[in-house]
Design brief:
By secondary structure, this protein is of the alpha+beta class. The chain is built from 3 helices and 8 strands. It has a single domain, classed as Molybdopterin biosynthesis MoaE subunit (Aldehyde Oxidoreductase, domain 3), CATH 3.90.1170. Strands 1, 2, 3, 4, 5, 6, 7 and 8 form an 8-stranded mixed sheet that branches. A hairpin with a 4-residue loop joins strand 7 and strand 8. The longest helix is centred in the middle third of the chain and has 18 residues. It is elongated. It starts with 8 loop residues before the first strand and ends with a strand.
Length: about 150
Amino acid sequence: MSKPIKSIFIQGAIDPSKIAKSIAAHQSKTAIGAHQIFLGQVRADQVGEEEVTAIEYTAEESLANSIAHTIKEELFDKYELTCLHIYHSLGKVAVGEICFFVFVSAPHRPAVFKALPELVDALKAQLPVFGKECFESGSHQWKVNR
């Protein structure tokens, strides 16, 4: 039986305390021997003459949650994983703030070393999440992944 679909979205930036709390919550899961974390941070990209000051994220939430759930289930079937958590920001996230947090745990490190990059790449390629780059001048444009 499949697990229920959970929302991966958080309004605004992902606070570092959420990351710390997530790590601390796993200390009681003593069958875990390895964790791997990916953090995505908003960059101050230079676009033409302007510098990005924030990204405003939107998403087709229901579809994105369904796709993320499917990807997670496939990775649980493929690797011996204990936990897999995905969080992505919605709304405005300033340069330097965390907008994407992925946390994978398993009894042994080879599983997390293989699963995490596969997970991040699949999410980035498949999720209908869109970013609008905001500039100091007040102008904005849809982000083009570089």
